[in-house]
Design a protein that fits this description.
Length: about 450
């Protein structure tokens, strides 16, 4: 059956003819343009139920991943270091070990998600990372804590590329930046409420029970995920055959407009992919230096309680949500991804540098600049990940996303380790502000080079 869609239902070709006849009665060029506009507008809506069926599930799933990786900063700001006799240098290593495990298993996991089942991969990842996160609260020495943090990174490593691959099978080019953004919104939204809740939990029941209580939701949610998600539209019983056919037709046509790439090796040699690997590594230095150590930076202020630290730590992520939604909306509307990436990264770099210039002389002004830096680093995520699915064909997208995300993990390792190390060895935060400012600035510059290559 051929035709167009209106409010989620397929309209037969005969209906198109009726529309054309109606408008052509005026016998003018403008009438034909009007008819085509109507049909085009009707064709823009394909199975709107995809949004309220899949996006909340993706959002919750990725939220739980961030819950179990970012709460370490609150344990570090609490009593964990004292209880386990962790030095400043060891604390930096522990905070970053997650990302080392995250680095090694990206590509195998993404390949499995692309060729077999993203649904199955994420189901088992949810159970395992929830169990490991809860186990963090049971460790009795530094060695066990190192093993658990590394394994947590291994288990979570394929989740991000698997989710991007899954969404690329369900949402079209015109929708993809928004879909990716709603997925990645799980990051700032989770850190926002987690910052508040974790502060109260550490204060009320201690850091051990904080890890246990915040690890259990992932295990429970795994069974909801398995029940509610399908790998591809063709497997979905909640879509009509016509809706499935229309969606898959659009997605197939998009692939036809992308230059073919033979295999992963060829994709990895692409200048755009190489530059994006470097860009994302530098960007991630800033993001995870910020995420892991912001609670400790705030807690160091005079007369700052752990509960107040939690509330203040949540503010950058509240603004990040607004920035991400705005950037993704206009990115999809204008269909220019890169101009919604580099300007935000430049703003973040300048905000970090401003915090360095102010130093410890004015905590509140420095904190406002950190809020701006956090918002600006998060805003470009949706447009950034939309770039990859639009410059590479589906047969190599999974590997390219995994490779870029792997370099992001290396940047996250460097950021979380070196920011903690600089804070500990210098006794202040100025050096780490300069380090994050420089990294994010270089990331912005490389984004401009990518725009010339792709």
């Amino acid at each position: 059956m051929t035709g167009v869609r209106t409010t989620g239902y397929l309209v037969k070709a005969s209906a198109q003819e009726d529309i054309l006849r109606k408008f052509m009665r005026g016998k003018g060029k403008s009438c034909l343009v009007s008819a085509i506009t109507v049909i085009t507008t009707m064709n823009n809506t394909i199975a709107p139920k995809r949004w309220y069926r899949l996006i909340p599930i993706a959002f919750i799933t990725y939220s739980l991943a961030y819950l179990d990786r970012a709460n370490f900063g609150f344990a570090a700001a609490g009593e964990m270091a004292k209880d386990l006799r962790i030095t400043a240098a060891t604390s930096s290593l522990l905070g970053s070990l997650f990302f080392l495990g995250y680095f090694f298993f990206q590509i195998p996991g993404a390949h499995y998600a692309a060729t077999k089942s993203a649904k199955k991969l994420i189901f088992w990842s949810l159970i395992l990372w929830g169990a490991l996160a809860a186990a963090t609260g049971l460790v009795s020495n530094i060695t066990l804590l190192m093993i658990v943090r590394f394994m947590l990174g291994v288990v979570e490593s394929a989740v991000m590329p698997a989710m991007i691959i899954l969404l690329s099978r369900w949402f079209t080019k015109q929708e993809r930046s928004r879909a990716n953004t709603f997925l990645i919104l799980g990051n700032p939204v989770t850190i926002l409420w987690m910052s508040i809740v974790s502060g109260y939990l550490v204060n009320a029941v201690g850091w051990r029970w904080m890890f246990i209580w915040e690890g259990l939701p992932a295990i429970i949610w795994a069974f909801f995920w398995w029940r509610l998600v399908n790998d591809k539209p063709a497997n979905a019983t909640w879509l009509t055959p016509d809706e499935i056919g229309s969606l898959e037709t659009v997605l197939q046509k998009e692939q036809q407009s992308i230059k073919p790439v033979k295999n992963y090796a060829e994709a990895f040699k692409s200048k755009a992919v190489i530059l994006l690997c470097l860009q994302y590594a530098l960007w991630s230095i800033g993001v995870y230096g910020f995420v892991i150590w912001l609670p400790s930076i705030i807690k160091s202020a005079p007369q700052m309680s752990i509960i107040k630290t939690g509330w203040l730590s949540s503010l950058p992520y509240a603004f990040a949500i607004i920035g991400m939604i705005t950037a993704s909306y206009f990115s999809d509307k204008i269909q220019n991804r890169k101009i919604f990436v580099w300007p935000f990264l430049l703003i973040a770099s300048l905000a970090f540098y401003g915090s360095y210039l102010i130093g410890a002389n004015n905590f509140w002004l420095s904190f406002v600049l950190l809020v701006i830096a956090g918002m600006a680093m998060y805003a470009p995520y949706g447009p950034f990940f939309a770039i990859l699915t639009e410059i590479l064909p589906a047969n190599v997208t999974a590997g390219a996303i995994a490779l870029i995300n792997s370099f992001g993990a290396l940047g996250s390792f460097a950021g979380s380790y070196l920011v903690g190390y600089l804070n500990g060895t210098t006794g202040g935060f100025g050096a780490s502000y300069i380090f994050m400012a420089g990294s994010v600035f270089l990331s912005a510059i490389i984004t401009l080079l990518v725009s010339r290559q792709s």
